[in-house]
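User: I'm putting together a small comparison set for a docking exercise, and I want a reference complex before I start. The sequence is below, and the ligand is cytidine-5'-monophosphate. Could you produce the 3D structure with the ligand included, as structure tokens?
Assistant: Of course. I'll restate your input first, then give the structure tokens for the complex.
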Amino acid sequence: MSVPVLTVDGPSGSGKGTLSRILAHHAGWHLLDSGALYRLVALAGRKRGLDQDDIQGHAKLAAAMDVSFGLEAEHVSLEGQDVTDAIRTEEAGQDASRVAAWPPVREALLGRQRAFAEPPGLVADGRDMGTVVFPVAALKIFLTASAEERALRRYNQLKEKGSSASLSALSREITERDARDSSRAVAPLVPARDAEVIDSTGLSIGEVAARVIELGRRRALWR
Ligand code: C5P
């Protein structure tokens, strides 16, 4: 029997991560944070001292690295070391977006990502979940928000964690990362043709979640 998959794609800071967590919790399904995998590849490369343009070296790490995710993907470890905070910095995000543009790295992560689809179901969060990794997902969401609002959400998130951040620098980084993610040749950030596009500008995460839960109900994914 095939496992139901719900995909949540969109640009950084759109609220995908929080939404995916709420949905996985609501449905009692597994959660795949695919962005964390790209962040881990970049971090593993740094730890090994790989050259920044060593595509094949990073692809090998992507296939072989030993990673584990805690419940609801909150805690992440690499080769037995807790790297939960290390992969969440803006720098780690920029690094991830660089290695994510390399086809051999994406190819190496494909099987790993698909292996997360285990009963009773999976919520998959990323950029190409609905277009490439799970093209026959039962429900595909593409979540957006204005660049200003996304930068502001990131700023507030970082401040909550006690990290210092500059709103203008975050805004610039988000725009740069969007441009790189949307213009790359392989698996660019675009909504799947059959995705439900939700603009969350001005909506609370609770309002967005309620909307998606209703969509899932209509498709008989849950009650
Ligand atoms: O979602 P997150 O910010 O953790 O993703 C980090 C980077 O990983 C993104 O900017 C993007 O370049 C890359 N990524 C990707 N495909 C995915 C998930 C993330 O290319 N499915």
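Strands lie at 5-9, 30-33, 67-69, 76-78, 81-82, 122-126, 139-144, 196-199. The longest helix spans residues 167-183.
User: Thanks, that's exactly what I needed.
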